[in-house]
Design brief:
The longest helix has 18 residues. This protein has eight helices and eleven strands. Strand 1, helix 1 and strand 2 form a beta-alpha-beta unit. Helix 5 packs antiparallel against helix 6 and helix 6 runs antiparallel to helix 7. It is α/β, with parallel strands linked by helices. The chain folds into three domains: about 110 residues, 3-Layer(aba) Sandwich (Collagenase (Catalytic Domain)); about 40 residues, no CATH class; about 90 residues, Alpha Horseshoe (Serine Threonine Protein Phosphatase 5, Tetratricopeptide repeat).
Length: about 250
């Protein structure tokens, strides 16, 4: 059996157990393999006096030598600041087509930037992966808006996978609506209801989209379901008028 090995490099700035446990859990889930801990040497040999950093390429060479025979992958976690000759720094490096890799936590720590210790660091994917503190996130929002803005710390909470999927589906729905393709938009709404079955608004929208393609019976059924769930909704009277008009059109067709 092969294993994923994870270990901290020895010496100062050793990552704490919480960080290593999180890394092990994540890798075990990603590779669907058992994970083992491994003790790794210090990386002092990779110190570059001119750069005042540690070369990640020599570290990879050390990991190749330390890699157990039954290792599918070996990941070293270090608190040292890493670099390669063509870049000012790297967060990590992996052996191309090989089994070993190293990641550095140095620049993920507030202390590196002369700030008080704080675990909350955020990566801005729209600005070349710039690292931001919560205060930096607030400043970025205000810069984009061009004015001071209320900033709720809840905005920085990780989004659950279901919420991300729902948002993607909603974006797809809006695309179909702009293209005036109600049939396709309706099918997307049904998928949205699988993700969030308690969404009354999606039940209403499914009914409306059925009416747009002249599926009056199905549209009425969905709109009636909406009124049963939300009889006091602000648009309840309007929905009732839609149902009445749908009945009238069905009668005309018959």
């Amino acid at each position: 059996m092969n294993y994923v090995y994870v270990g901290a490099t020895a010496g100062e700035d050793v990552p704490d157990d919480e960080v290593l446990r999180a890394v092990r859990d994540r890798l075990g889930a990603e590779f669907d393999m058992p994970v083992r801990e491994i003790a790794l040497p210090a990386v002092d040999f990779a110190w570059d006096e001119k750069r005042r950093q540690y070369g990640s390429i020599p570290v990879l060479g050390m990991l190749v030598r330390e890699c157990p025979q039954d290792a599918a992958k070996l990941l070293a976690v270090t608190g040292r600041d890493l670099f390669i000759p063509v870049l000012t720094f790297v967060f990590g490096q992996a052996q191309l087509g090989g089994r070993v890799a190293v990641i550095s936590l140095a620049r993920l720590r507030q202390e590196f930037y002369g700030l008080p210790p704080d675990r909350e660091i955020f990566v801005d994917p729209f600005h070349r992966g710039e690292l931001l503190t919560p205060e930096g996130c607030r400043s970025r929002v205000e810069k984009i808006l061009g004015r001071p803005a209320a900033f709720d710390p809840a905005y920085l909470q990780a989004t659950p996978k279901c919420s991300t999927l729902y948002r993607l589906l909603n974006n797809l729905k809006q695309i179909y609506l702009r293209r005036e393709q109600p049939e396709r938009a309706g099918r997307v709404v049904e998928q949205m209801l699988i993700v969030q079955p308690d969404s009354c608004e999606d039940v209403r929208d499914r009914g409306m989209l059925f009416l747009q393609v002249n599926a009056y019976a199905r549209g009425v059924a969905w709109l009636t379901r909406y009124l049963e769930r939300a009889p006091e909704a602000p648009d309840a009277d309007r929905v009732r008028r839609w149902i009445e008009r749908a009945h009238e059109r069905r009668a005309q067709l018959n």
